[in-house]
Amino acid sequence: MVRIDDSDDVTKCWLSPDELNRLERTAGENGWEREVAVQLMGRCGLRASEVSYPNDSNLRYSDDGDIWLFEIQGKNTKGGSKTTRDAWMPDDVAEDIHKYSRERDLSLSDSWVDASTPSIRRWVKEAAHAVSEKTDDPRWQSVSSHDLRRSWATYHLVERQVDVRTMMSVGGWSDYSAIEPYLAEPTEARIGEAMRT
């Protein structure tokens, strides 16, 4: 794993893109819906509580940005009622979602993931435990659904150097203090790349 922080009561894990892919595939062994749920958290930055919201009617291609966006109703980090935002979806995830929707014969209003937040969190734990058993790596036992969002945010903010305002918009953070914890230390690879140039 890129990094683990167990200095608090809750262990925080940062997964690399390859580790996220492995977790997706492992979750998918117990059903495509589980793989989609992990993709939405690890590749699109959704909170576990947001995963059951989107459907095909929420997904659109933006010609202006040349990207896939989808509407999410999620947590308001300033408190109060939920807020609506456009989340970003990578092209390969959009392709998977389109295939999934066609094969499942989902209507425009059918949620891609029809599961409760506790179930979604349990799916991540089950997949992480399965990876731990396959790899004989006990660090996977600590992976949670929020670690997928944490890994997504840190990868884009630190490794890809996406600007903070863009990340706040697509990730649903209302102010800088809410996103600041995701500005973790760069990986050794990022340090090497930055210092070589």
Automatic annotation (TrEMBL):
<keyword id="KW-0233">DNA recombination</keyword>
<dbReference type="InterPro" id="IPR002104">
    <property type="entry name" value="Integrase_catalytic"/>
</dbReference>
<dbReference type="InterPro" id="IPR013762">
    <property type="entry name" value="Integrase-like_cat_sf"/>
</dbReference>
<dbReference type="GO" id="GO:0003677">
    <property type="term" value="F:DNA binding"/>
</dbReference>
<dbReference type="Pfam" id="PF00589">
    <property type="entry name" value="Phage_integrase"/>
</dbReference>
<feature type="domain" description="Tyr recombinase">
    <location>
        <begin position="10"/>
        <end position="196"/>
    </location>
</feature>
<dbReference type="InterPro" id="IPR011010">
    <property type="entry name" value="DNA_brk_join_enz"/>
</dbReference>
<dbReference type="GO" id="GO:0015074">
    <property type="term" value="P:DNA integration"/>
</dbReference>
<protein>
    <submittedName>
        <fullName>Bacterio-opsin activator-like protein</fullName>
    </submittedName>
</protein>
<dbReference type="GO" id="GO:0006310">
    <property type="term" value="P:DNA recombination"/>
</dbReference>
